[in-house]
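Q: Sequence in, structure out?
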Amino acid sequence: MNLSASVPLPPGVLRVTEVLAALGHPHAPVMLDDAARTAQQAADVLGVALGQIAKSIIFRRKSDDAAVLVITSGDLRVDEKKVQAIVCAEGGKLGRADADFVKAKTGFSIGGVSPLAHAEPPVTLIDQQLFRFDIIWAAAGHPHGVFRLTPDDLTRLTGAPVHDVTAPPSS
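A: Exactly. Output:
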């Protein structure tokens, strides 16, 4: 693993660090030498399975313009219809979130969205498939920042419910 120890922490990573410390999480964020903007990049840099990367996907709930955060396993795709059925009222729609929406609602740029320490608390769902792994890694507010946790830690830290939100693997 190629980690930088002497890099000053960007503001988003500092925010995540403070929240993790306040919640008693034992693993502070680390800064990677290489960017981990995608789950595959993060897995490669960390030397872990792609599924161990807890990727944070932001959607826009159209009825109230709320951010919907889905934290899913890096080797799977989110099933937007499943998420919509959980977080939208009857007939409500979920839409894609552009980079400006993500930054405004979370305080993070795409590629570094953490599962916690958001500018505005999102509606959050955790993918049950993350529980296939003992250890997972999540973005820490910057494309170079990550932190280690367990799926149970993720549930405790976010207070989010666990659901089946992924699409079946394509063959």
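Residues 11-22 form the longest helix (12 residues).
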